[in-house]
Design goal:
The protein has 499 residues and is of the alpha/beta class. It contains 17 helices and 21 strands. Strand 1, helix 1 and strand 2 form a beta-alpha-beta unit. The protein is globular and about 65 Å long. The C terminus is likely disordered. The structure holds S-adenosyl-L-homocysteine, iron/sulfur cluster (SF4) and FE3-S4 cluster (F3S). Iron/sulfur cluster binds next to helix 8.
Length: 499
């Protein structure tokens, strides 16, 4: 009988990628995935610490498994990722039935930790060093970039993949836990990234999304002093045979250099889409956040992006209710959102994170109801902007990489793509500018690039009809069958962040 593995993932794309790689590694050891935690021999939670809510969810899920674990002491329960690195052995105090606590920089050790629990029945901890605990080089070494060989069958979608190009973060925005839980910023060697992209493309992957917390700060330094930046890396991987699209997330406003924008403009496979979080439109707040730029700088940067990359779509993140955010500061953020023309924005209520500078230095002085109200207000403004942006696209024909069944269709089919050819379905995909498009077509279009004429729009979605595929010159519906697309039966395309 094969051993069964259950894994639940919260957090950002880094975590989605880590989970994919963990599943790949354990499959090679004979594990099979199950969708029921209580069916599994090994139950894993890949966790996030960016806001309190993300942690609470995991602690409640662990609590729900307490009785199950008491009845089945041989089952292995593991907590992986950011919360593991942050809470360390404290997790074993709060949830004594947990067997494994494994940080983001130690995932390669997971198979060995599982075996150790099975043999010794004692809890196993694998954690990286705290950033203040040792020299930079020692801390760096303790955070290992987890990039084992990819297992194509483990990718939620065979034609899309995340590729890590760097780990960690050195920006230390005062509200953010990521630099402590993901460690120092370290760029992966360009040759390794290029080889991974080649492997993925050879296996049928059409779109790669390069991942880094501040992806545009990527810089690899060779022993002889030569440096390679993100623009060089894009050029290096651009001509990979089979590859059609390249994206990269997330950008730090101060590092949005002209050479990068020129690469986006001139390299046809690079999507004209930039996620560049502003966080706030008020200079006082930005200063307390230690974002290292002013709103004037940010606005100039937006203009530079639009001038250098005509038609570029830009999205952002905002935190509302940060320490000391007055109504006037919030209004400045609203002004920025009204004027900046973001394709979309992710808006979060400030959540104090123990261990961060903001938590140490400033009072969390904006009441919850005001945070909630500001969140709703800002979202309403962004929705109006998104709707206007979407409406302008009505009548245009856009190129869409078909990603899977639409949410409505997935719900109707109980979360799984249907077997057999059962007529047209509602499909979803994205344009080169990352706009979501929903349209009707055969499931066999999944994984193909099709032309869609946009006919309707809401703030979140464009709706259209497939037109003759001009690039291939045949009716899009008669394109050859593609391989089955979904491992988990879910549509993997998720926006940052997932929680
Ligand atoms: N590295 C990325 C994003 C990291 S976390 C970047 O620098 O843009 C994703 C988003 O979560 C952030 O952009 C921020 O908007 C939000 N976030 C981070 N810490 C937070 C906190 N303590 N409370 C609320 N939102 C937070
Ligand atoms: Fe966090 Fe700032 Fe680093 Fe982004 S850039 S991960 S917000 S510290
Ligand atoms: Fe970690 Fe990503 Fe959350 S880096 S803290 S999983 S947003």
């Amino acid at each position: 009988m094969s051993k069964k593995l259950y894994i639940e993932t919260v957090g950002c794309q880094m975590n989605v990628l880590d989970s994919e790689l963990v599943v790949g590694a354990l499959r090679r050891q004979g594990y099979e995935l199950t969708h029921e935690a209580t069916d599994a021999d090994v139950i894993l939670f890949n966790t996030c610490s960016v806001r309190q809510h993300a942690e609470d969810k995991i602690y409640s899920a662990l609590g729900r498994l307490r009785a199950h674990k008491r009845r089945h002491p041989d089952k292995v329960l593991g907590v992986l990722g950011c919360m593991a690195q942050k809470d360390k052995e404290w997790i074993l105090h709060r949830a004594p039935h947990v067997d494994i606590v494994c940080g983001t920089g130690q995932l390669a050790r997971l198979p060995e930790l599982i075996a150790a629990v099975q043999q010794t029945h004692t809890p196993q901890l694998a954690l990286s060093l705290d950033r203040k605990e040792a020299s930079r080089i020692e801390v760096e070494r303790s955070f290992e970039s987890y990039d084992p060989l990819r297992d194509p069958s483990m990718r939620p979608s065979p034609f899309q993949a995340y590729v890590r190009i760097m780990i960690g973060c050195d920006k230390f925005c005062t509200y953010c836990i990521v630099p402590s839980v993901r460690g120092p910023e370290q760029s992966r060697p360009p040759e390794h990234i290029a080889a991974e992209v080649r492997q993925l493309a050879a296996e049928g992957c059409k779109e790669v999304t390069l991942l880094g917390q501040t992806v545009n700060s990527y810089e690899y330094q060779y022993a002889d002093g030569r440096r390679e930046r993100l623009s060089d890396l894009l050029l290096r991987i651009h001509d990979t045979p089979g590859l059609e699209r390249i994206k990269f997330i997330t950008n730090f406003p101060r590092d949005m250099s002209d050479d990068l924008l020129d690469a986006v403009r001139h390299l046809p496979k690079v999507c004209e889409y930039l996620h560049v979080p502003a966080q706030s439109g008020c200079n006082d707040v930005l200063k307390r956040m230690k974002r290292l730029y002013t709103v004037e700088f940010y606005r100039d940067m937006l203009q530079r992006c639009r001038e250098r990359v005509p038609g570029v779509a830009i999205s952002s993140d905002f935190i509302v209710g940060f320490c000391g955010e007055t109504e006037a500061s919030f209004q400045r953020t609203c002004d920025l959102v009204r004027e900046a023309g973001f394709k979309n924005s992710f808006i979060f209520k400030y959540s104090p994170r123990p261990g961060t500078k903001a938590d140490e230095l400033f009072a969390d002085d904006v009441p919850e109801e005001i945070k909630k109200r500001r969140n709703n207000d800002l979202l309403a403004i962004q929705n109006r902007v998104s709707l206007a942006d979407h409406r302008r696209r009505i009548g245009q024909t856009v190129e869409v990489l078909v990603e899977g069944l639409s949410k409505t269709e997935l719900k109707a089919s109980g979360g799984r793509p249907s077997s057999g050819d059962s007529g047209p379905k509602q499909l979803t995909g994205r344009t080169m500018t990352d706009h979501i498009v929903v349209f009707e077509g055969h499931e066999r279009l999944i994984g193909q690039t099709v032309q869609v004429r946009i006919e309707e729009a809401t703030a979140l979605t464009l709706f259209g009809t497939v037109v003759t595929n001009e690039r291939i010159g045949v009716e899009a519906d008669r394109l050859p069958q593609v391989s089955s697309f979904s491992l988990h039966g879910t549509n993997r395309r998720v926006n940052l962040p997932l929680i």
